[in-house]
Predict the 3D structure of the following.
Amino acid sequence: MTAAVDDLSMDCYLQQRRESGGSFPDPIYNHADLGPLAMEFVDTPPVQRLRHLKQLGCASYAFPTAEHSRFVHSVGVGHLAGQATMALRATGLDVQPIDVELQEVAGVCHDLGHGPFSHVFESEFLPAVLGRHDW
């Protein structure tokens, strides 16, 4: 990380975020912004792997425009987690820059354990392979 986020004032943090964070074009929010720490996670192989996993599983076979990767979903969740954390600050809660960064990282990383076909994999494949349904 470029600077110790927990040592920054919120104003300095927001400036650093604009300079060294990342922004992704987004059809719903216009852009999804992430801070520098979350961007370090985005640039790792486990997060990049999510580009090849479908968020909506086989739905695109019935609904051809239902195309959404787990990567795009995770970037959006990270963006919204940061926005929600900043909104808490507006209520008077003592939200620090590190709180925003960690919420974004949690959002970006929340789907890392998913395999192909995701919930079908969990509910059908794993019990068949493991021979039980309580894994």
In short: The mean pLDDT is 85. The longest strand covers residues 22-26. DSSP finds seven helices and two strands in the chain. The longest helix spans residues 70-90.
